[in-house]
Amino acid sequence: FRSAVTGLSGATASAAQASPSVAAPEMGIRFFADGDAGQCTGPGSQFVGGNFTTPIRFDTDSRTGGCQFAFGIYDPDNALAGLSATYGWQVNPGGDANQCGTTRGTFALPISGFQTFGTQLRDDTDSRPGWCNLTFALSGRTDIALEVEFWADGDPNQCHGALPQNQFYTVTAGSSVTLGLDTDNRVGGCWLALKITHAGF
């Protein structure tokens, strides 16, 4: 992984600087509206390494359409070898399943040397009963974490599991996190940002 080289001189410094470094993996999100664009705020596609992704905002309600989204991890130097990641999308028990699109279940969050995304999901919550649960999980390595920021900018009851802004969940092997999206015509929406972390990058 990347490391700073300081206090070296001469041949030692030259040799150290010539050593190959490993690029930090980058967290990716694809996010776009399939109706009223005001319901889905944020970059259409992004990959970010070393920092949180640019936040995306869900604010689906009675306006036309919903938000479509998918995730991926770009790992050009195979720094995450052995890691598996998933994201799940399920209707909350007793809720109207049509708010959560037609594709629901648990899906591989691809870790690849190419900038690619996993299964595309759809959020269209509104005043119908219930909400949609988004779950992130890791397995295979204990030294990698996925940090998850999830906060509300209005009625916090629309964002189940929301934390204060700039606080985050830490997903590690055996410790998943589930977030509930329940936006409707109440004030505000739900923001989401992600970051892959490891002591070496």
Q: Spans with pLDDT under 50 lasting ≥5 residues?
A: 1-19
Helix amount: under 10%
What percentage of the residues does DSSP assign to strands (E)?
A: 35-45%
Mean pLDDT: 89
Total count of helical runs of at least 4 residues? 1
Indicate the structural class.
Answer: mainly beta
Described by strand count, sense and barrel closure, the largest sheet is: 5 strands, mixed
What is the β-strand count?
A: 15
Distance between the termini: 6 Å
> What string gives the helices and strands in order?
HEEEEEEEEEEEEEEE
| Rg computed from alpha carbons, rounded to a whole number of angstroms | 19 Å
Gross geometry:
globular
Give me some keywords for this one:
201 residues; mainly beta; five-stranded mixed sheet; five-stranded antiparallel sheet; 1 helix; 15 strands; globular; disordered N terminus
Walk me through this protein's architecture.
With 201 residues, the chain is mainly beta. Helices cover 4% and strands 38% of the residues. It contains one helix and 15 strands; from the N terminus they run H-E-E-E-E-E-E-E-E-E-E-E-E-E-E-E. Strands 1, 3, 5, 8 and 9 form a five-stranded mixed beta sheet that branches. The chain has a five-stranded antiparallel beta sheet with strand order 2-4-15-11-13, with no helix packed on it. A five-stranded antiparallel beta sheet has the order 7-6-10-14-12, with no helix packed on it. The longest helix has 9 residues. The radius of gyration is 19 Å and the shape is globular. The chain starts with 9 loop residues before the first helix and ends with a strand.
